[in-house]
Structures are given as C-alpha cells and as structure tokens.
Amino acid sequence: MEKEKVILTIGKKTNKEIAEWMNINVSTFSRNKEKKLKLLEDFAIFHFEGKNIIIDEVLDEVFKKKSNYQKVFEKIDENWNKNGLDTCVNVGKKILTQLKKEDSSFSLKESTVIRYTNRGKIELFGRCYSEGLKGKCVYITCKYENGNYEFFTEEENKIRAKLLKKYFGNISEKQLYIKEMIDNGEITEEKAWVELERITNMTSERVSCYYIELSQILNCDIVKATLVLRNGFNYSKEELEQFKKWQ
Questions:
Q1: What is the DSSP string of 133-156?
Q2: pTM of the predicted protein model
Q3: How many whole angstroms separate alpha carbon 182 and alpha carbon 175?
Q4: d(CA 177, CA 171)
Q5: Could you tell me which of 181, 82, 175, 176 has the C-alpha nearest to residue 135?
Q6: Residues 31-61: pLDDT tens digits?
Q7: Kindly report the CA angle at 182 between 181 and 185, in degrees rounded to 5?
Q8: What does the alpha-carbon distance between residue 247 and residue 236 come to, in Å, rounded to a whole number?
Q9: Per-residue model confidence as pLDDT tens digits over 169-205
C-alpha cells in the first residue's frame, strides 16, 4: 500500500516535521540542514523564529525529488526571447502552458509559476544590473505591440527623453546629487528615497501620467521588461547598443 503523502502547511514547523514531509529521518535532515533548507525554498516562503521554521506561504504542498521549481527553471532560458527582451510574466505563462501539455496533472497556479520564473531568472541572469550563471540583465522601458516587446526607435527615444524631463526634470543628475548628499552626511540612506521623490516630484500620480502620455503619443502599450545579455550569444550591434544604453 502506498504511503500517504504528507502535505506542507502554513505555520510553525520543527526539524522533525519538515523531515517527515521530505520523507527522510530527522538525523539526515539535521546533518544536511543547509542543503535541505535550500531545497525547501523550492516549495515554500519561510523564515525562522529561534530553532523553529515558520512557513509563511506554501508554493508546492507535496514534496518530490524533482521539484516543480526545477521543472520551471529548466525551461526559462529556452522560452526567453532570443533578442533578450522579455518579462517573467510572459515567460512564466509560456512555461505553464508547456508543462500542462507535458503533464495534465501539473497543477501549480499561474502566479506560482511566474514567481518561480522570476527566481530562476535571477539565478540565470542575476538581479537587474548584476550577473547570474548564464549572463546579466537590466530593466528597460519598451513598447508592447501585437504580443511582442519592441525597442524604441531613435525618434521614439527622443520623445521619451522629453517626457521624462517634462515630468521629472534632469532625473539622472538629481540621482547623483542624492548620492553626494548621503556621502556628505546631509541625509541618511533611509531618507534618500523620500528626498529623491521630493526633488524630482516623482509621485505615483506623475509616474502614471508619464506612462499614459508616452503610450498615447506612440499609440502602443508601454511596459517595463527585462533585457538579458547571455554569455557567448551572438547579438546584433543594435541589441548590444540597447543593453549599454540601459546599464
């Protein structure tokens, strides 16, 4: 008779309870605790209170040797647009469709697959403005037309620059001023964002108005995407210039 599967639930857990969920004995868990906790990240969001593990959110309730996170991770690079410009939401949705075709019992929520995709993107290409296992990436504002993410043309970039100045002034220079104010002790790092908002007038309303006006002028949707630069990939001159522009 097949052993009943243990379901992971939210709340306080002992080493013994996590070990039972992983179908191993507690001594094995304790000897390999760092490795096992890393594996637990594939299934849950958690933190510690003393020696207890507190499960804040369950992503995948049944333990399996090959986690659903690993299944998602293996498909990220192949589904990320070859020109490097894509989003974790778009890639996550494509991966979910593939996994359901491969296994009709695959039951993770779309939001969980997208979260796994974002985590995997960080492993592969780093957090934005840093590097990962296979390359690096930056955030980029771009057009979204007919299901595709597109770079701005030179003329469109001029329009975007004018609008940025209209709404937020010389924002890049003002960011430098904030850094100097921190270094000089005029403000603390904790107050830096408040100060940047003040001198750029970067309120949520003005940010929204900026994107709406840019979208109306260019007659397309404007989105924030991630531009990936894969190690060893043969990019066009335009694609490399786009990456340098947003670094």
A1: SSEEEEEEEEEEETTEEEPPPHHH
A2: 0.81
A3: 11
A4: 10
A5: 82
A6: 999 999 999 999 999 999 988 899 999 999 9
A7: 85
A8: 17
A9: 888 878 888 888 888 888 898 888 888 888 888 888 9
